[in-house]
Amino acid sequence: MIPKDILEKILRIDITTNRLVTDVFAGAYHSVFKGRGMEFDEVREYQPGDDIRSIDWNVTARTGFPHIKKYVEERELTVMILVDASASVHFASTGQMKNKLAAEIAAVLAFAAIRNNDKVGLLMFTDEPELFIPPKKGKAHVLRVIREILYFKPKARATNLPKVLEFLTKVLRRKSTVFVISDFFDVNADYTPMKKSMRIANQHHDLIAITLTDPREIDLPDCALVEVMDAETGARMVVDTSNEGLRREYRAKANGLIKNRDRLFDTIGIDHIDISTDVPYKKALVSFFAQRRRRLARMV
Questions:
Q1: Interstrand relation of 271-276 and 206-213 (parallel, antiparallel or unpaired)
Q2: Domain membership of residue 265 as a residue range
Q3: Edge-first strand listing for the sheet containing 129-136
Q4: CA distance 244 to 48
Q5: What is the bridge-based pairing of β-strands 129-136 and 119-125?
Q6: Are residues 62 and 161 in the same domain?
Q7: Of 116, 211, 258, 290, which has the fewest beta carbons less than 10 angstroms from its beta carbon?
Q8: pLDDT digits (tens, 9 = 90+) for 147-180
């Protein structure tokens, strides 16, 4: 049986995110994602005015007459939401904990999807894919997705996103819009496997990264001696936060990691939405939808 506090959280998220989707995101979601996917319909003879880029050269060579591939707009999309459940997301120094914030953002995206009659799936991960819920339609399914995010008890503490993305490309054959909600701490450990797995996943799907960051992961306050722990390894150490040089070094390293992460996304061509736990996420999502809509409009 689901605890009462979890049920209350599900109800609160349902009410909050539904209002947000109705007021802001439903139309924006449709204009940004609907109609971007195309599926093969048939091959027919070339007609004057057809785009020569659509010519099927194999059929043309076989028949001796130019033929083109005809595509039709997909009637529905599949939205897959990947949520980091590693130990580092169970943290907040202010505002919401990152895992609770992830659940709320996932709910906004999921409700926007079902408003447009799309399918929604969920993959909870740590250093392994721990829970996979195949894409389905309907509000009852979305409420299950939210419940699983809030109620999920991970088996592991670490993160291995390359392995998770490899799993995704195997189980998700249909081209989908994939949101990865994570703090992406493991991005900076080793670029090579991350870059390769992200590039492959983005070739098969429309990959979008949603980064979650807490202010204390960038700036240390002056609190004298403090014991800190690495959430994913359990390693502990005492640091003197009154040391200005140490705080400066910490800030520089954190900002360097963020720049490297963003550079990785840009190199592969992955859109990313940066969200901080101390700032309402609505503005960041609205900005993302607006920027993506303008970019797609320029491509038409």
A1: parallel
A2: 4-31+76-299
A3: 129-136, 119-125, 78-84, 177-182, 206-213, 271-276
A4: 71
A5: antiparallel
A6: no
A7: 290
A8: 898 889 999 989 999 999 999 999 998 889 999 9
